[in-house]
Structure formats: C-alpha cells, structure tokens
Design goal:
Helices cover 32% and strands 25% of the residues. It has 324 residues and is an alpha+beta fold.
C-alpha cells in the first residue's frame, strides 16, 4: 500500500509515467483501504467500490453518458488553465505552463494544447502570463473548433466561442484572447470567470435542517455580469429510490460565482451560459457520486493536464481518459 502522506505531486508523477508508457493507472491509498475494512458501513462501502470501479471503467475508454442534444448557439468551449513550475528544491519559479482544454458544442473533448517554460507570475492575486503563448494556443484551439463545424461560415457569424477561466488574469491576457478570436473570423465570444467558492449561499430552514437548492439552480447578483450557480445541491443519487435524495452536508454546498469578464459589444452573461456550465460539470465522469465535482470538466481536466505538463510530461498526445 501507499503511505498515508504522499510526496508532493506524487499522483501527477504516477500519471505522467503511465501516459508515457501507455498504461492506465489507478491509485488506492492505504488509509482508504483501512477505512473501508474497519470503519465504513455498507452504504459507504458501496460508494467507495462504485467510485473505484467507475474510475477503471472510464480509464478503459468507457463513456457512461453524453448530452442528448447539441448546446445551441455555441461553436466551442475553451478552458484556460495555468500552473507554476517548481525547481528541484521545491521553490516556485517565475515559469509555468499554459494549457487549453477544448470541447465542441456537444460537450465532447476535442483537444488540448500546452505551452511550457512560459513566463508566469502572480501579483496581488492577478496572474500574468506570456501573451504570445496565449495567442498561439488560442489560435490552435480555434482551428480545432473550426474543423468540427458543419457550416463554418454561418457558425463564425452567429455562434459564440466561450472561454472559461478559473483564475483572475491580467487584462492584457483577456485582450489577447479577444484579438486571437477576432483574427480567426469568429464574430461573437464571451470570456467567463468561474469562481469555485461563491461568497453567497441560499437555503431554506426546516427546524435545524438546512434544505439546499436543487442542482442547476441559479440567480443573478448583477444581471448580465454576476451570477451564482449550484452545480451540486440536493444529491440525486440514493441507494433506496423510495427515499428522498441525500442532502450534502452544509460545508460542501456552496455555489459557483460566475463573472462575465469580456465579450463582443452585445455579449452579456445569460441563462444559456449558466446552463452550459452546469451541463459541462455533469459531463465529468465522476460527477454522479462525488459531490466535490463542482467545476466544468474542461476546467477540471485542463488543470490536471497542466499539472502533468509541469511534471515534465514528454508527450501531450494522449486520450482524455488518462486525466481521470
């Protein structure tokens, strides 16, 4: 078994090696096995085995679910992720990885693009990265999106390119994304910041019991600019279908804060954007039984890809199943 405390980036180093050798891996922590044997009740054991089996299923190329229709009004999605690299002594350098995860209007992953050894630093909570790298990667992502379009001319005139970011970047980064989109002939775009921990919560009180909103609930703090979205809420999975859905503990139920950052002149944050974020979250293969899956799969898996690149991954051409 593995030790209780893993070395830094242990998981990513294991994944890096497995990708380079073309072998899928599944890590099981010793503490989880001991907890399963000594402490879990039957329900918890069922959850543990479900998650373990589901991980293997997805890594073998299984697709448990997909959307039943296209996400209207969108040519594609781009998720921007950046991470810093560490030196041999563990100190953070002013270098990093820029990574883009790309999905089509069916919410299907269609590519990922990396730029390593890129200037990256954080100043007062704002991330600065080499805008030349951003420009090159965004254009590559847009070329991939265009290859997926059945009517490119019409789509580039009428549909949006949606860019999701989870961190706050310098305005020059957003400006470069906008100019790259325009240079490829796409007329409409939105850059949307998805903040994992929203500052506000909403619930009703039944005695001492808090009743959290249903998944997919949302409201606007500032119409067109700021909204709150519950991608987790009343958990829909239950071992006994005759019972009410399980309610996640209070410490876990917080909405995403969705902020409109930049777009073409007529763009604003709307209901469609929030619904698409929810759908992209539920498309994550672990979203059915892991309430911690709050973010769209493009951001979550893109961040994993960036961490793998920062770990020294030699090849970037690998199936998305390695990211689970």
């Amino acid at each position: 078994g593995l030790p209780l405390v893993l070395p830094p980036l242990f998981n990513y180093n294991v994944k890096k090696a497995s990708i380079e050798k073309g072998v899928q891996s599944q890590i099981i922590l010793k503490k989880n096995v001991e907890n399963y044997v000594n402490h879990m009740d039957d329900t918890a054991k069922g959850d543990f085995l479900w998650n373990f089996a589901f991980g293997i299923f997805s890594k073998l190329g299984g697709t448990p679910w997909k959307l039943d229709g296209i996400l209207q009004g969108v040519s594609g999605f781009i998720a921007l992720n950046t991470v810093s690299t560490s030196s041999d002594d563990g100190t953070i350098e002013r270098k990093g990885i820029v990574a883009l995860e790309v999905a089509n209007s069916w919410g299907e992953p269609i590519g990922r693009f990396f730029s390593d050894n890129t200037n990256r630093f954080v100043e007062r909570g704002t991330i600065y990265v080499d805008i030349k790298s951003v420009d090159v990667l965004v254009k590559k992502a847009l070329d991939q999106i265009q290859r997926e379009l059945t009517e490119p001319t019409q789509s580039k005139e009428q549909e949006y390119v949606i860019v999701h970011v989870k961190d706050r970047y310098a305005n020059e980064v957003y400006d470069k994304i906008a100019s790259a989109i325009a240079s490829k002939g796409f007329k409409k775009f939105k850059i949307i910041h998805i903040q994992e921990q929203g500052a506000l919560r909403a619930c009703s009180q039944d005695g001492y019991k808090k009743i959290w909103p249903q998944e997919g609930s949302y409201w606007y703090l500032q119409p067109g600019n700021i909204a709150y979205l519950y991608t987790i809420g009343r958990w829909q999975y239950s071992l006994d279908l005759a019972k009410e859905p399980y309610i996640i503990g209070a410490h876990d139920v917080s909405p995403l804060q969705i902020n409109f950052v930049k777009g073409n002149e007529t763009s604003k944050l709307d209901d469609t954007d929030l619904k698409h974020i929810y759908y992209l979250t539920r498309l994550h293969y672990y979203s059915a039984d892991l309430p911690r899956i709050k973010m769209p799969f493009t951001i979550r898996l893109g961040e994993r890809g960036a961490q793998l690149a920062a770990s020294g991954l030699a090849t970037l051409d690998f199936p998305i199943s390695f990211l689970y």
